[in-house]
Amino acid sequence: MAAAIQVADAATGVDDSGGAAVLMLGEVAFRDFYDRTARRLWAYLAAASGDPALADDLTQEAFIRLLRAGIRPESDEHLRRYLFRIATNLLQDHRRGSRRLAPLAELREGASPGPDAAARVDLRRLLARLKPRERQILWLAHVEGHSHQEIAAITGMRPASLRVLLFRARRRLAGLVRAAGLAPEETP
Asked: What total number of domains does the chain contain?
């Protein structure tokens, strides 16, 4: 990723080659931002796409496009939302191009499974049965902790539509969890 950081003259917004504008952020500030957000962005893309290799590629491309956008961030949160919006657009572009979604990866070979490894694998299988949009909004809501307004801004949906889709996605996932026998037993 270091090669992709073209912040030679962040004050003027011109990269080394004198070409595209770059993020109005110094190299150190960008590296700090990258360190704070790259892992979360990758996790979001991996969950939404079901493909860790694709998540790697889209994460890198999202940061490159963020650098080239030439925006002046109002805050760290504004920059993070902008990055997630770029990543969401890249994911949608990929889906339009491929028209199919790769299966979710199982545990990596050689990884030591923890006590809940089987439940994680089962949950991954269940998530793979959801529509890509359902996985995406569930991840943003429950893992990233975004509000409905924030998810709507990231995905380009209307907040009212998002609330309905999120409710349906939760209900569908809960049904899959119950059908798989993974739901906690209710005590009378």
From this structure: 2
